[in-house]
Amino acid sequence: NDAPIIYADNAATTQKPLSVIRRLSNFYAEENSNVHRGVHALSEAATAAFEDSRKIIAKFINAQSEAEIIFTKGTTEAVNLVAQSYARSQLKTNDKVIITELEHHSNIVPWQIVKEQTGCELCIAPVSTSGEVLLEEFEKLCDERTKIVSFSHISNALGTINPVTELTKIAKLCGAKVFIDGAQATLHEAIDVQKIGCDFYAFSGHKAIGPTGIGILYGKLNLLEEMPPWQGGGDMIEKVSFKGTTYNNVPYKFEAGTPNIAGAIGLAEGIKYYSTIDLQSAKEHTRSLTKKCEELSSCISGLRVIGTATNKSSICSFIIDNIHPNDIGTLLDQQGIAIRSGHHCAMPLMEKFGIKGTARASFTFYNTIEEVEQVFKAIEKARKILA
Ligand code: PLP
After folding, report:
1. Which residues are catalytic?
2. What is the pLDDT of residues 128-159, one digit of tens each?
3. Atom 12 (ligand 1) nearest CA
4. Total-model pTM
5. What's the CA-to-centroid distance between 334 and ligand 1, angstroms?
6. Average pLDDT over residues 161-183
7. Is residue 189 very low, low, confident or very high in pLDDT (cuts 50, 70, 90)?
8. Which residues line ligand 1 at a C-beta cut-off of 6 Å?
């Protein structure tokens, strides 16, 4: 609409630096080959670049070994992998899985499927009116029947940053395995899976300045070794015969078929880019964007922020009296501003707040204070038109 674009939909997906775009393009133009199978130079180079990416990602989240990094399509596939391989094979009727009210559908539905398959119980830890997990309630739910606890690091719908180390500690006291959905966390928090103490951690490349169609599942090596394969096919086998098949080592046991080679290489390039910026100042900068959102949102008549946790990322979810969130999104788009409106794949959370959806502006380290100001100016303009 002849206005310079302001991109404030980073919780849905982030933009990509030129280095990532060039790395992808260069791979396809100059290096394209399949991995793990060829003896020719191109295949060896592609395999080396693909496996180097695994090492870079392992270092990024402080995994003990690169064997603990499984390439997936994204967070969704990672949750499904753990649900179908680990949970389905381990859980019985009397066992419990705990998730929280904050979860994205991709951290709800796979556990509902496991519930149907195994007869286990699925318990939901409640959140407060500000959108924070109620620790006492969470603790009460955790008992000797609890086998898996799964929660997001940061809520995509509200921006709440969960106290993941504390939640993990509580879950571990009852012997449960902990899965963390880190889809929203990679650009906001330094991730150290060993310090957190979780068993599984997942994130998506496209929300971390990397390509779409690639993500990772981190799993503790001993657990991954015990888990049965999830999908069968090439690369995940050691030997195949019609009498039976033996499986490859971890992580390849979980990577059936040709992987997203360029995606993995592109994701590592994004992490390299991110590692060259001063993370402390990036964090302080995003914190100042969050503060600016808080300040400016309080100046708009009839605007209610949904999700007011003390520890929040730069996601601002809101509703305005008598105005549909989609109308706000459309009027902002007419002013060149991209935000998201709807239920943000968190229908149960919306139901909890008694709303159908919100308008959500989500910022990241490359957004500016001026952009936040422009967004709120545009929201005020939209409010006046729609009121
Ligand atoms: N979990 C959270 C918190 C998310 O925000 C998202 C995506 O919006 C997902 C999981 C699913 O990620 P993907 O669609 O990349 O698999």
Report:
1. 345
2. 999 999 999 999 999 999 999 999 999 999 99
3. 75
4. 0.98
5. 27
6. 98
7. confident
8. 74-76, 104, 106-107, 152, 156, 181, 183-184, 204, 345
